[in-house]
Each structure stands twice: as C-alpha cells, then as structure tokens.
Amino acid sequence: MKRILLFLSILIIALTNVWAKKSLSTPPVDAPKITLTVQPGSEFYIDFTGLPDKDITIWVESDGVQTPIEVPKGVEEGQLLQLRTVKDNTIILHGDITKMAIEAQDSQISELNADNNNSIQRVSLYLTPISKVSFRECKNLDLLYVRECATSEIDITGCSSLAELKCNGNEDLSVLDITQCPALEDLECEENQIEVLDFSNCPKIKTVNAAFNAIKSLDFSNNPLLELLDVDSNQIEDLKIDKCTSLKELIIEDNQLTSIDVSKNTKLTKLQIGENRIQEVDLTGLTELIRFHCPKQEGGMEKVDLTPCTKLQYVVTYENRMKELKLPASEDLLRIECYDEELKSLDISKNKNLTELFCENNKIESINTKDHLKLLTFRARNNPLKSLDLSNSPDLVRLEMKGTPSLSEIKVAPELKKANWIELNGCKLDACAIDFVVKALNDTFVEEQPNLKKLFIANNPGTATCNTKAATDKHWVVDAQGDGTGCPQSTLQPILDNIVIGATSKGAYIYSDIAVETTVYTVAGEVATRAIVEGATLLPLAQGSYIVQAGNKAKKIIVQ
Prior knowledge:
This is Leucine rich repeat-containing protein. Helices cover about 5% and strands about 35% of the residues. By secondary structure, it is an all-beta fold. Among the domains are: about 1-105, Jelly Rolls (Sandwich); about 495-560, Immunoglobulin-like (Sandwich), CATH 2.60.40. The chain has a 22-stranded mixed β-sheet. It has a 7-stranded mixed β-sheet with strand order 6-5-8-3-10-12-14, with no helix packed on it. Strands 36, 37, 38, 39 and 40 form a 5-stranded antiparallel β-sheet that branches. The model is unreliable at about 1-25 (pLDDT under 50).
C-alpha cells in the first residue's frame, strides 16, 4: 500500500509520493467528486482505489489548492492518503475513485457528500465520527459500510445497484430509506433508533439484521428470497412473513408479538420467538428445524409440540409456566433447556444422543435416562424425582440434583472418568447411595486446578456416615464430612461373578446384575460395538466370531 501525506493549506507544505504531479492541472469539469466537510485542523486517512484498466488522476482540493495524484491502472491494494487541513473546512476529491475507506477516530467529519458520483462503487467507514453521509444517485455504488460512526443521516436515494448496506451502531440514526435500492440483498442496521423499514421495493433482499431498533411493524410480502431475519429487541407488533418461502433463520425475540404464523416457512432451521406475548405456536411442517428458542413468553405458553421437527438439535424454553413439552422421536436432539416450567413429565426416551439436559425447577416425577450413553450434563434440581438411573452415562461431566428432597435412589456408571461437578445436596440419599457415587468418581488430579472437582452431599440422611474420605483421596473437594460408618464396604463390591455371556442368531447376549462396561471385538481385534450393560441385553451383530469382554469376564462367541 502506497502512503501519501498531504498537509493541506493555501500552499502544499509536503507531498511525499513519486506519483504526485509537479503540474497543478485542474480536474475536468465533469469529474466525479467526493466532498468532505471537516473541522479545520482535522487529520484523517483516506484509502482509495482507482480503475483496473487505465491510469487515472485524482485531485485533492483544499484551501484553494488542487493537487493532482497519478494512480496507475490495476493497483488493487489502494492508496493511503494522510490528510491534515490547516484552515479550510472542506476537502474535495476529484476523479474516478472506485473504492474508499476513511479513518478519522479523533477528528469530526460533519458530512461526506458523493451525490451523483457514478465512479464510486464501495465505501467503508468504521469508527469515524461523521454526522451525515449522502450518496444520492450513485448508480454504481454496490457496497456501503457506515459502522459505529455516530451518523444521524444516511441518504442512499437512487442507489440502484446497492447490494450490501451495513450501518450498525449509529445511536442517532432513526430514519433509513431503502425504497430506491432495488438491488439490496444484505442489510445490517442493528443498534440504531430506526422506526420504519420499507422493503416493498427490495425484491432481492436475502439477509436482514435489524436488531436493537424501535421498529413496530414489518411487511415482507414482496420478499420471497429472504433467508435470514433478525429483528431481536424491537417493538414489533405486526410481522408479515407468509411469502418468505426461502426463510431459514427467524429471530424475533424481545418484541410485542401476540402470534406468529410460520406455516409457509417450511425451510426454517432456526426459530427464536422468546420474550413476546405468544401463547401458542404451530410447528407443523417445520421438518428442517434445528434450533428452537421460546423462553419467557409474557402471559405464558402452556404447551409446545415439537414432534414434527425431526431434525431438531437444540431446544430452549423456560419461564413459560409450560405444562407440556412434546419432543420429536429423533436421535439428532443434543441439548434441551426446559427449566423453570411446570412440566410433570418429559419423555426423552427416543433422544438417545442427548448430551445436555437442563430441566430444573419443574414438577417431573420420573425421567428415563437409562439409554443415554452420550450424556455430559444433567441438571434436574428441585423436582419431585424419587430415583435416577444414569448407569449408562460414563461420560457424565456435570450432575446437578440439589434440592430434590424425594431422591432416595441414584445409579451412575461404574466409573465417571470425566466428571468434575456432582451436586446431591438436599436429597434423600442414605450413606450407601452416596458411597456408590463416590466409588465411581475418577481420581484425576489437575495440578493447575487443584480444586476443580467438587462433590456436594450436605443435608442428606446419609451425609454424616458416608465415606467422604474416599472422595477426598481422589482429589475431590467435598462440602461435608462423613465418618464412613454408614455403609458396609462389602455392599459396594460389584457382583462380577454373576455375568452371563452367550450368542443368539442376532448377536451377543449379556446378562449382568449391575451395570458393566461391555466391549465386543472381532477376531482381528477391532471394536465391533461397545455399551454399558445391566440386566438382559442383546447387542446386534452380523454373523461371525467375536470376543465379548463384560466386566471382568471374557468369552468367545459365534453368531450364526
């Protein structure tokens, strides 16, 4: 990048670039121009680019002096002008500038005017204090960035080629007229004070990010190509999107909507409608939906049926006083957040790849977690659960059951290799129940984080007599002390002798009284399948010979 330093006054004090002409020729009368109105003494940088196919001359005019600068053709990086005005408050750039960026963080530009300039194509202004920007009738302007510039007025009337407009972070910008921008595809105007956006003459619009404004209504009846709409944190009461059949992401949280119709938006993959006044939503036909967020509806939302959403991966719904949440029979579902509701049941039996579940502060009496081998986080505090079976979740990292006063029975995997946070305080666990959990804890020690692993067991019937020393010996920080007298150690020994391994025509048959890690190998030593087995279990296998390792037993079988 070439750097040109100009001190602009009545005379040119310094010009350090070999491209600066010695002659003071004047620009053609019809040369495109860009006018900057600045404070005298301002200093700022202008990065500009000329034409790709011919040499051009740019004239910089200030304090009555016009300074020509030659720009060779094909220069892609742009030329960096450092301008400093002495007494004049106007700088005019004459010539075929196609791309321009301005940096003036410490100087105030009151106006940038490029009206009727048909050479300018791309302009980027960022963190440059500039009150007014005008590009009226700039027919070839296709990209305009005015980001965090404290701009209060942007005039893009007649910018018929403008495809991308980003004007976010201008707190005083309340009006944005895009009605004469028919080529507009991408609009980012979040964090302003815009009250009205009219897309009726923007048939090509694909992306709209207008979050954190003061918009009250939006009509996208003429915008069938719209793919992403983010109008989070506005004042929207009316939203028309039924013609937006290409819509994939809809984010309308924190508005004033009382209803939402997404029946025509069958390509949606993300739907975020929280913090409105919506009491019901019909998700029929949304088979592509991956993310659904619906927290904190004013007035509540009693039920949500997600069963049509067979590709769903993430669900977030809380503080709705919800009584019923129907989940899809899908193994794609990874994370559920449904806390602070009024749910009495939650069926996750078909969501076997679930990794995170947050369902605290509900009324759930039972939940089937036995087949969730990939579960990492389980948080179900303050529910009337009496028992919990996590024996097939060896990768569990975090378990939070604090304040579950009916919980008297809990099963975990024989070894919790990744766990670092277990909350069982305020439950109904006896010493043996606690000691079974302690026995499964890992003994990993991280020198940089010696207090990383924490076990909470206070306020249980068996707290005082459980074996907390076994936990501290494994480098766990425990919130209470037990003397270890409450549960005979013999009851903790796994009954590994009572394991049966056999074969059927469909696979390996294993029976075990307790949960044991089971691995099936081919005769070549490759892992065919792996599971946590308890009770009678059939592991499907193709015909062939295998070696089954279950607990401390191993046996060769033939499936035929």
